[in-house]
TrEMBL record:
Protein name: Cytochrome P450
One example GO MF annotation: iron ion binding
Organism: Pseudidiomarina andamanensis
Entry's family note: Belongs to the cytochrome P450 family.
Coiled coil: none
Amino acid sequence: MAAVLTRHHDVLAALHAPEQFSNKVSSHLNVPNGMDGAEHQAYRALIEPFFSNVVLTQFQPKLQVVIDELLANLDAHNDVEVMETLAHPFALRAQCAFMGWPVALEQRLTDWMAAQNAATLAKDRPTLRALADEFSDIVVEQFERARRGLTAPESVTAQLTQLRLNGDPVADDYLVSIVRNWTVGELGTIAAAVGSIVGFLAQNSVVQKQLRAAPMHIDHAIDEILRLGAPLLTNRRRTTCPVGFGDQSFEADTTVTIDWRAANTDPGVFAEPHQFKWDRDPHLNLLYGAGVHVCPGKPLAQLELRLFTQSLLNKFTKIELGTRAFERAEPPRGGYRQLWVKLSQLNHSSAKSTCTAALE
Ligand code: HEM
């Protein structure tokens, strides 16, 4: 039987017992998610400053440019397919802007991601290995550019090349792994999150109106929307000793899957778990995990999703489902594979008459 933790209580217990549930589930280097104990803490301490308030405040205007360009190019007369037109390009461009990578890299990364998605779904291991090497080459090229002074010194990529651990520079394979953790995993998660948010808003005009009237509640609403429409489905642990949870017990050295979607819709913890509710306790939401491996990128993810949602709600007065039916993504992906929406803007003549009416 597959070892899967689905109950909120069991997932929390495992997350808070890292000495029994190790993150070393694969032989591949995975910084910091595939590390335990002191080694994990050391690399966490290195990466956390990249998501500080100071860094994110500097990044915000660049992120707004990315969003404005994407929304300006949308066709407001026809149905829009959200995943291809908005979600994936947004995730990629936001990440390139965050890293300080040249715009020219976008197409190469887009092609790489398409190949990676296809190989993941086909479980094509040789192609996945070749793609992993290609990703390393792309990232090492960016480190080399930074070292030759071709990147702004304050850029995230340049700062990464300056990292030191116990006085020594961090080796390139570790730096590549850090960037792989931020990019390969998280581009898909951010894109899936955008799909889940737009899909939810298109089917819930009341919440749309509430958020337009009270944008300060956008973060809170997004966390609840993504509790329902999980963008990240699973992570894994390996037991270091025999472990028992209620009716479940695992031998030592068992790979255990943490099912975020199931835990976050556990009816024992969330009343009417598949309903959106404003008054949920945010501390129960496991969207960004918990314990020592809790997502360090949460402030960046929240900034990206908040700014995107706010800009979309500001620009379009109505977001509705399009005429073509949506298709849900299949595991290991969360959210939607395809999502068609109709976006309406207030036309200028009616905007003018409303203003005139208000003045009179
Ligand atoms: C909606 C977006 C996101 C969601 C839902 C999410 C969710 C999560 C979750 C649940 C974990 C815990 C994994 C575990 O326990 O094994 C995690 C870890 C992590 N996340 Fe995120 N994440 C998001 C965005 C990001 C972004 C944008 C970044 C960075 C650019 C990021 C970087 C990381 C890293 C490095 C870890 C590993 C931390 C560790 O093992 O100590 N995440 N994320």
